Description:
The chain has 344 residues and is α+β, with helices and mostly antiparallel strands. It is 65% helix and 13% strand.
Amino acid sequence: xxxxxxxxxxxxxxxxxxxxxxxxxQAYIIESFGYNWYIxxxxxxxxxxxxxxxxxxxxxxxxxxxxxxxxxxxxxxxxGVLAGLCVFISRWSLPYFVDDKTYEGFYSQSLTIxxxxxxxxxxxxxxxxxxxxxxxDQKENEKRKTDAERLARExxxxxxxxxxxxxxxxNSLNSINALIGIRPDEAxxxxxxxxxxxxxxxKKDDQAPVTLTEELHxxxxxxxxxxxRFGHRLSAEVSCDGKCEDMMMPAMxxxxxxxxxxxxxxxxTTEDVTISIRAEASDxxxxxxxxxxYDAQTxxxxxxxxxxxxxxxxxxxxxxxxxxxxxxxTADDVFTTIIKIPQV
Length: 344
């Protein structure tokens, strides 16, 4: 608000200064032809007031209407009409202030030059107004476009988050259903763990980033739930560089990657599986690496399914406008997912 008032004050001072300067210049020119300062001042004041009104009128009209490419001739006509009105009104009104026959003859002889000077000044004002208001319209359109894109991006991020929670919830409920009949105590434990996990996710703002420590805490809750389901077959190794514990990242970004790792690591084998999660800081990036073993004969981790990698990659693109923040590699029956999160 203060900034707008300051800008308005500067514009007002500039316009007043231009008005005074133009009155002085015109009065000086008239005085140089041998007329006294009263006549020169009256001439300068009346003509400058009329010219200012014409400039205000053309500026105010162009605030709401800008001519098309084929309509600029109409704008020139209006500038000519306003210039003519200024000359006519000043010619009619000046005799009320100046009673000098010699000056009246001088004024009549200078009508043509006065008309073209007024036309030039009003035309310049029209040109400046067209450029100024066109730029304001462009900035407003760009702002509306940016706001629309931001709202669309936030809506898509929200939808991605909403996809994640039911996706995980349905999987967990199916696991609980499978355990109720054969291991009811573990089913009850899993329900409590699921409750703690969902409570943590619901407390978070969809758009607010979290620290790596908070994200790893949620991942650990998820791993605890899955360990109830898979028992001793599932283990996890989590290592975190102390420098990156307080680095920021999108909430619930790591969990679908870990879920994919468990799916591809455990579903096609009866052996014990270790999921490795590592985090480190590198060149203003938080780098997360998730590794899991897989059977190349039965698994197809590069394609992925469901929410997984595609959802993570889409979220990172919406947040950072980059498609190079997710990488996947396979080597020696180990599938590796690397996520780089810029620290802005």
